[in-house]
Design goal:
Length: 369
Amino acid sequence: MTSKLLKILTGINRVSEPSSGSMVLASDLYRAMPDTYTTFLGREPVDQAWGAAFDQLIPLSTAKRPQGPDFDAYVDELTHEVGTRIAKTRPDAIHAQYLGFALSLAFTRTAGSIPIIAIAHGPEVMAAERNDRERETLHEVAAASAAIVAPTSALADRIDRLTGRRFTDRVTVVPWGIHLSDARVRDQPPTGTGPLSLVHAGRLDDNKSTITAVEALALTDQPHHLTVIGTGIRRDHLEQRANELGLRNRIRYHPFLPRVELWQLLPSFDAFVFTTRVLEAFGLVLIEAQAHGLPVVYSDLPGVRELLGEVGVPYTPGVPASLAVALDEMGSDFRWRAAMTTAAIRNARRYDINTTGRQLRELTLRVAS
């Protein structure tokens, strides 16, 4: 019996390239989803290699504008463009990525009888918690959605509370994942104590709080080294602060790396440092690090604790002294670190992108029928 080919319309209102966790996830997810035809709306310029993950990639032409005086006019223009695309593609279902942002609003206002599944990524939830207008937008998308997907129960609960528990029965958890088969583990396990070679990867902004790792290095008993991989508005501040603390020779910086290059580098480090301070929807990079055999030292946030639990080393978010203690403890006990490596690999195996794809397709079939 042949499975029904499910036509999905989705998109992320960003430049169409793997420049963030959500874009990388989208590429992996729709490539892994069986028996689907996916049309993806994104922004120019289009990275054709990345776009190959979708059956059709269409650049949006409406000029993007942030929340502010022109936002309503922008949403109206985007809604008209999206409505035209819906009429042409005639999807079975719409996946509204970021359930509180402009493209999701445009989907909501033009979908008609086509069911919508809203997929939360985290930044829109943070925005809605800070701003009444953003909260109204999120509520409108949630109200129009047949289902609301979050990657962790912690994020699902935040969405449920933000929407006044009105849509509890629509909220479901579908954990994200990665292509586990592409990960490789270092050949030799840790065999001694001493300073660690640490890596941190992610956007360099206030919420990711890379500054916590920089300031922690100045407090450690051992002279650990840190490689920071990423791009963002806090890069210059990080370098300035490191110089003030006398850490110039213990911190290296790399700009954002494509996943293939990042994965080639990961096995060369001793541990991964995760420093997000307020909210992390899922933290794909945590699973990437664990799949490559890296123990993870992580800021103890509810969603991250849900992913890692006892197979990571927690510290108090945003507190460099707490992170420094965790790093020194890991550096002084290589047997414990070796055990954490084994546990990390085992934990990562729970998050296979093929499982994510199957679960989301099954959910989509249910709401579409």
